[in-house]
Write a structure and sequence with these properties.
Blueprint lengths: L2 H20 L3 H7 L4 E10 L5 E12 L5 E7 L5 H17 L5 E7 L8 H14 L9 E5 L5 H15 L20 H20 L7 E5 L3 H12 L3 E7 L2 E4 L6 H11 L9 E3 L1 H5 L5 E4 L18 E3 L8 H9 L3 E3 L1 H4 L2 H15 L5 H26 L3 H20 L4
Parallel strand pairs: 3-4, 3-5, 6-7, 6-10, 10-11, 11-12
Antiparallel strand pairs: 1-2, 2-4, 7-8, 8-9
Helix pairs in contact: 1-3, 1-14, 3-14, 4-5, 6-7, 6-12, 6-13, 12-13, 13-14
Length: 416
């Protein structure tokens, strides 16, 4: 079984564990174990060589009791329906932990963006959107960026939808460029939110950011901005990797220079003045904060007992398996789970959606201070729950989230 399919088993297992812990109503539990609806679409496009290639696309709504379906779209060769379902489920909990009025969704197309031209990528995005034109909508399902999708792709989704309804509709998608109704601060929001949760933790532990050393797995939007923000605040970023490998320098790396190097060379690999390091080695680097910001299934039973960082902040979705969670908990690690630590992205997506619906836009300071308010409150609620119940931060986040979703489901009742 591939790591991607395994993600769904893990997501369901996490739900089962919290259900047992909080004595969840079995009828609610039964409903939450499955997605509300799943779409599989064929995405045929004409390649630049005039041949037609057919890609497979998905969109899954896990639960919409608390609001419209919300979640990103992933373009990756390993995307499957099962993985998309797991990611949709995690979106339900994520939106509930930070208490924004959305249900959980995710989408994806199994494709390799590295071999597609800009024209091919645009045709793929427009056709995927067209296939789901009756699914997407500002009141029903609002996509956003995820792995290997970006503001330009969101702009094509916005345009395809707008052409179909006959007017510009910024509320149909988030993570758009500013010029077409995006929000200031959205691009860095996942990282900023992740850093806010780390700072809340450092305050509780009476530690200073200047004393921290940081390793970042994944140097995409989330990993890069996290490195840059924490570096600017005085921490030392000592290791970073991307899908091809990475670099390590105990004296510290310059996150911006590293990003420029990646831009020019396609990878952080062989960045001058640093040692080479693999993705596996990065996870075991001697540092105080580890930020997995790449893919699922990175910290597993195989390596959990070798993780040296004592703070793990999950910028990625699903980087740690339940078995590894237990090992890290027993070893006394401070573990900020994905549904809390990376919820800043969807939180600012929510701000972008609100601004788009009102056609009234906020300053970057407003966005960032409202994001801080939401992340700090969510951290405090989860922290108190973890102390009270003597459970992991992940279990505490799930207790908060599943209770919120359950309350909405019970209040709304079962239709018909
Ligand atoms: N793809 C991001 C996530 O996993 C953002 C989702 C959104 O903004 O809707 O949280």
């Amino acid at each position: 079984m591939s790591g991607q399919d395994n993600a769904l088993d893990i997501a369901v297992q996490q739900l089962d564990q919290v259900a047992e812990r909080i004595n969840l109503d079995p009828s609610i539990h039964r409903r939450l174990r499955r997605p509300a609806r799943s779409y599989i679409v064929s995405v045929p496009i004409r390649l630049d060589n005039r041949e037609v290639e057919v890609f497979e696309g998905y969109r899954v709504h896990h639960n919409t009791s608390r609001g419209p379906a919300k979640g990103g779209i992933r373009y990756h060769p390993d995307v499957t329906l099962a993985e998309t379902t797991a990611l949709a489920m995690w979106m339900t909990w994520k939106c509930a932990v930070v208490n924004i009025p959305y249900g959980g969704a995710k989408g994806g197309v199994a494709c390799n963006t590295k071999v597609l031209s800009r024209g091919e990528l645009q045709r793929l995005t427009r056709r995927y959107t067209s296939e789901l034109i009756n699914v997407f909508g500002p009141q029903t399902d609002i996509p956003a960026p995820d792995v290997y999708t970006n503001p330009q792709i969101m702009s094509w989704i916005m345009d395809t939808y707008s052409v179909s309804v006959g007017y510009a509709e910024p509320g149909v998608v988030t993570g758009k460029p500013i010029a077409v109704g995006g929000s200031l601060g959205r691009n860095e929001a996942t990282s900023r939110g992740c850093i806010f949760t780390i700072y809340s933790l450092l305050r509780r532990l009476n530690r200073k950011v200047e004393d921290q050393t940081v390793a970042v797995q994944g140097y995409g939007n989330v990993g890069y901005h996290a490195a840059q923000i924490i570096h600017d605040d005085g921490a030392k970023v000592i290791a970073a990797t991307d899908s091809k490998g990475g670099v390590f320098n105990p004296k510290g790396l310059d996150p911006r220079a590293l990003a420029r190097y990646k831009e020019e060379n396609g990878s952080v690999v062989d960045y001058p003045g640093a040692d080479s390091i693999t993705n596996e080695e990065l996870l075991e680097v001697d540092c105080s904060i580890l930020i997995p910001a790449a893919m699922e299934n990175q910290i597993t039973q195989r390596n959990a007992d070798r993780i040296k960082a004592d703070i793990i902040a999950e910028g990625a979705n699903g980087p740690t398996t339940p078995a590894a969670d237990e090992v890290l908990f027993e070893r006394g690690k401070y573990h900020l789970p994905d549904i809390l630590a990376n919820a800043g992205g969807v939180t600012v997506s929510y701000f972008e959606w609100v601004q788009g619906l009102e056609r009234y836009f906020w300053t970057e300071e407003e966005v960032n201070s409202k994001l801080k308010g939401i992340m700090d409150r969510a951290f405090d609620e989860v922290w108190e729950m973890a102390q009270k119940e003597k459970v992991t931060m992940r279990m505490a986040s799930y207790i908060v989230a599943v209770r919120r979703v359950t309350e909405a489901m019970l209040l709304r009742g079962l239709h018909p």
